Amino acid sequence: MIVIYGIKEQLNPIKAKLSDVIHQCMQSVLGMPEDKRAHRFIPLAKEDFYYPGGRTDSYTVIEINMMAGRQVETQKKLIKALFEEIEHQLAIAPVDIEIIIKEQAPYQWGFRGITGDEVKDLNYKVNV
C-alpha cells in the first residue's frame, strides 16, 4: 500500500497522473502486476502540512508499505526511478519529493482472509 501526502491544492490536480507514475515505477522495478495498485491520497490543508525549509508547496511525501524481501539495491532503484519519473512527467523537483519505504514481515500483512506468509498465489515476486 502506498500513501501520498501533500497540500490539497497541489496534490488534487495531479493525483491520477502521480498514481500512474508511481505504479509504472512499481511495475518496472518490482514487477508489480497492473491490477495491484493500492494508493491512498491524503490531501491536506496548507496549515496542516509542515515541511522542511527550502521546499515549495509542491512538497509531496510518498510512503511505500511493502512486505520485506526486496534487496537494498532494488529498493534504491525504486526510489531513484520515482525521483526521475516524477520530475520528468510531473515537473516536481526531487527536492520536493520525500520517499519512505516501510517494510513489514509477511506475517504482519493481512489480506484476503490470510496473512502474507500464508499466501501461495501471488502473481509477482517479493524477493527481488
- Our Rg estimate from Cα atoms comes to 15 Å
The CATH architecture designation is 2-Layer Sandwich
- CATH topology annotation: Macrophage Migration Inhibitory Factor
What is the count of helical runs? 3
Q: Would you list the SSEs in sequence order as H and E?
A: EHHEEHEEE
What kind of sheet is the major sheet? Answer: 4 strands, mixed
Low-confidence segments, given as residue ranges, are none
Would you identify the CATH H-level superfamily?
Macrophage Migration Inhibitory Factor
The total of beta strands comes to: 6
Structural class: alpha/beta
CATH C-level class is Alpha Beta
Mean pLDDT metric: 94
Trace the largest sheet across and list its strands.
Answer: 2-1-3-4
How many distinct folded domains?
A: 1
**CA-CA gap between termini:** 18 Å
Strand content: 25-35%
Tell me, briefly, the overall form.
Answer: globular
As a percent range, the share of helical residues equals 25-40%
Description:
Pfam families: Tautomerase_2. This protein has 128 residues and is of the alpha/beta class. The chain has one domain: Macrophage Migration Inhibitory Factor, CATH 3.30.429. 30% of the residues lie in helices and 25% in strands. It contains 3 helices and 6 strands. Strands 2-1-3-4 form a 4-stranded mixed beta sheet. The chain has a two-stranded antiparallel sheet with strand order 5-6. The longest helix has 19 residues, at 72-90.
